[in-house]
Amino acid sequence: MRIRKSKNPQAGFTLLEVVISSAVLAIALMAATAAFSSNLVATEEAKRLTNGSIFLSTVTEDVLAQDFDNLLALNGNQIVDGGNLDVSEYSVDLTVFLAGIDLIQVQAVLTDLQTGREIGRLGTLRRRQ
Asked: In the chain, where are the structural domains located?
C-alpha cells in the first residue's frame, strides 16, 4: 500500500522570502539607475567637448585665413562663442608671436566657461607666402 503525502494547503511564499526578493530587486534597480545616470553625465560631457572642439577648430581656421601681416595684431585676443562672456559657453585665448624670419606661431587655448576648465589647446605655424 502506498502512502500519499498531503500537500500543504497554505503553500506559497513566506514573508521573509518576499522581503528578501524585494530587497534584491531594489538593489538591482538602484545599480541600473546609477549606471544610467553615469551614462547621461558622460554623454553630456562628450557633447560639450565635441562642441568646444568644433568652436576651437572654427576659430583657428578663421585666424589662419587672415593676412600674414595682420596676425600679430591678434595676440592677446579672447574670442567667445556668444555675444559676450555672460552668454558664452566657450572662449579661445590667442597667443600670436614671431617664431622666426617670416614665421608666425599661433597658439589657441579653449576654455569651458561653465566649469572654468581648459579643455583644448592648439598650436600651429604660418609662414609668409
From this structure: 15-127
Residue range 73-91, pLDDT digits in tens: 999 999 999 888 888 999 9
pTM of the complete model:
0.73
| Rounded Cα–Cα distance for residues 53 and 110 (Å) | 8
Three-state DSSP class for residue 23: helix
> What's the mean pLDDT when you consider all of the chain?
90
Question: Per CATH, which fold does 15-127 belong to?
Answer: Pantoate--beta-alanine Ligase; Chain: A,domain 2 (3.30.1300)
All residues at 6 or more sequence positions from 76 whose CB lies less than 8 Å from its CB, including other chains? 94, 95
